[in-house]
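Re: beginner question about structure tokens

> Can someone show what the tokenized structure looks like for a real chain? I only ever see the sequence side.

Sure, here's an example I had lying around. Input first:
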Amino acid sequence: MTTVLTPLDTALHIAADGVPVLPLRRGKLPFGNCSACAQNACGGRPNMKTPGPCACPQPCHGWAAAATDPAVITSPAWAPAWHEAVAVAYHPGGAGLTVVDLDTQAALTWARATLPPTRTVATTRGEHWIYLGTMPSSNAVRPGVDIKSLMQYARWLGRGTGAMGALPDAVRALGVREPSPPGRAPQSLTVPLRGGQGECRHRTPTYLDRGIVMAVQRITEARSAIHATVYRTFLAVLSTHGRCGCLTDAHVARLFIAAQAKGESPRHCTDAWANALNALGM
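And the corresponding structure tokens:
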């Protein structure tokens, strides 16, 4: 008779091998911030500036909540999340690993011709190639290829097959972004703000100016996961300032300039802004 493991059972088996785990809700997403950590009240973990779980015991900060201690994983604070969990994720960087996520047949063909063999895990759309060693995570390093290692999570889909190889220079090179050509001016905002129909809650422009300065600083100080940092920053700015009409194209241009200074392309900036608008229904 086949035994069906619950997500919690699976997580405990994985954690016993020293791999930090966390629960995933429907949509393969981590659980949201708990009430104690809402609006970044816990002091910075949602910004992903430092690794490790928040002082709060809830699994509420994505990859940073991943744990190997069974006492934490089975604690009452985590119980509601495991009850609702539909899958398990793990923090590759926390286990000293890098996952090359290959999402298309073309990406698989490229990897088989370019990268040294290593352990592989089948996914719904392709394969995860898992190497020993860590590096900064980066999405869309080439068509259909993401890198998940430090400050990122990957869905657990089994132990895979094959011997695990050392992280090759060919993979490390994928995460190195070429600098923008000198003298190229940042592209201006091409996505409309929308909204602006509500009454201003801020009373003073100083509040908005301070928010933009903090957002620019968050993008500028990011050392990895630049795509995700830019999107989350755009989302935070829009959720706070986007509905009352105070946010102008000049403010948004400052955000775009900061993002492009970190190597984001104009298209990525525009896409991230549009996705944030859509996520907020604006």
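Each token stands for a local structural state, so reading them left to right follows the chain. Residues 205-221 form the longest helix (17 residues).
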